[in-house]
């Protein structure tokens, strides 16, 4: 600030205050769900997301994604995940990672072939707009191995985190079935 006159310093301070006020003004409005910014949904409730064991639906902004029939088939030496993922968004989506509550990561394998929905790309399993991809089914579709997940007698669900390229992290409780 050396070499600046008092008037120049005052003008700079006013400009910075005005810019800061404009930048923070958007933070004081309401969120997409009508609640004031900075407030959170009640425990167990996230606007735009509905879930139950074996399924989750995400409908926020331009994201329209549904995971259904999620079942972890577990045995003493690991397991597999079967599920259907419906992408009703207008842009392609990718499933890039599956993590278990026990710290394990799923191993993704793409559908047979090199093009189209369900194939493994560098971003993950491709989910084209308007399609449903079935994981772990017959017919050469994509699959998810869960090498570190183990079945324990009374376990009813396995908490999973699915990482999508557009939707981000999605939590689902897969129903557990003996392998």
SSE layout:
Elements: H1 6-25, E1 49-52, E2 55-60, E3 63-75, E4 78-87, E5 93-100, E6 107-109, E7 120-121, E8 124-127, E9 131-135, E10 143-146, E11 157-164, E12 168-178
Parallel strand pairs: 3-12
Antiparallel strand pairs: 1-2, 2-3, 3-4, 4-9, 4-10, 5-8, 5-11, 6-10, 7-8, 11-12
Explain what you see.
The chain is mainly β and 179 residues long. It is 11% helix and 44% strand. It contains one helix and twelve strands. The chain has one helix spanning 6-25, and strands at 49-52, 55-60, 63-75, 78-87, 93-100, 107-109, 120-121, 124-127, 131-135, 143-146, 157-164, 168-178. Strands 1, 2, 3, 4, 5, 6, 7, 8, 9, 10, 11 and 12 form a twelve-stranded mixed sheet that branches. Residues 17-43 have low confidence and may be disordered.
